[in-house]
Each structure stands twice: as structure tokens, then as C-alpha cells.
From TrEMBL:
The keyword Ribosomal protein does not apply. It comes from the Eukaryota. It is found in: Chromosome; Nucleus. The gene is Zmynd11. Residues 59-94 form the MYND-type domain. One of its GO terms (biological process) is regulation of signal transduction. InterPro entries: MYND_ZMYND11_ZMYD8, ZMY11, Znf_MYND. This is Zinc finger MYND domain-containing protein 11. One of its GO terms (cellular component) is chromosome. It comes from Nephila pilipes. GO terms for molecular function: histone H3 reader activity; transcription corepressor activity; zinc ion binding. Keywords: Bromodomain, Chromatin regulator, Chromosome, Metal-binding, Nucleus, Transcription, Transcription regulation, Zinc, Zinc-finger.
């Protein structure tokens, strides 16, 4: 048995293993960076859509997207909803100047 050759083989396989480990951790780091980028993209998208939602007005009566604005903090998706809410309570609280 040639112990010298055996040692060499061992050393080269250790080097290979190290290389392999280095390649793996590089790959992991790249994956992590890609994931973080993906996450920040998703978060950015979420932030944008959230601010768009906040800009929208929602029907006071049924919570659909509102297209009719009555007065401060009060909008409706349709004339029907406006009428319903008007008779229910809004005629007492409406701030619209007339
Ligand atoms: Zn409505
Ligand atoms: Zn009103």
C-alpha cells in the first residue's frame, strides 16, 4: 500500500470538497440575494397597490368602489346606495354645502 499516494488522494478529495462547499455557499448566497430581491419587489408592489387602494373611494353603503362623491368621507357606488344611505342617516349628517 502506498501511503503517500493515499494521502495525496485524500488531500485532493478534501480540496474538491472545499471547492464544492464554496460553490454551494456561493449558490446559496446568490439564491438568497435573488429571494431578497424578489421579496423587496413584492413588498414594493404591495406598497404601491396599497396606496392606490387608499386613494380610492369606497361606497359608504355597500363598500364597492365608489364613483359618486357626496361630501367629506362619504361616497357611493350608485345613486341607489346614495338614496338608501341618505334616508337611513346621511340626511342628518351630510356636510355638503347647498
Ligand atoms: Zn354601494
Ligand atoms: Zn353627504
Amino acid at each position: 500500500m502506498n501511503s503517500e499516494a493515499e494521502k495525496q488522494k485524500c488531500a485532493s478529495s478534501e480540496a474538491l470538497e472545499k471547492q464544492h462547499q464554496a460553490a454551494l455557499s456561493l449558490l446559496e448566497a446568490q439564491l438568497k440575494a435573488a429571494k431578497e430581491e424578489e421579496m423587496s419587489k413584492i413588498l414594493e408592489q404591495h406598497r404601491i397597490s396599497l396606496s392606490e387602494v387608499k386613494k380610492k373611494q369606497w361606497c359608504y353603503n355597500c363598500e364597492s368602489e365608489a364613483i359618486y362623491h357626496c361630501c367629506w368621507n362619504t361616497s357611493y357606488c350608485s345613486v341607489d346606495c346614495q338614496q338608501v344611505h341618505w334616508h337611513k342617516e346621511h340626511k342628518r349628517t351630510c356636510r355638503r354645502k347647498r
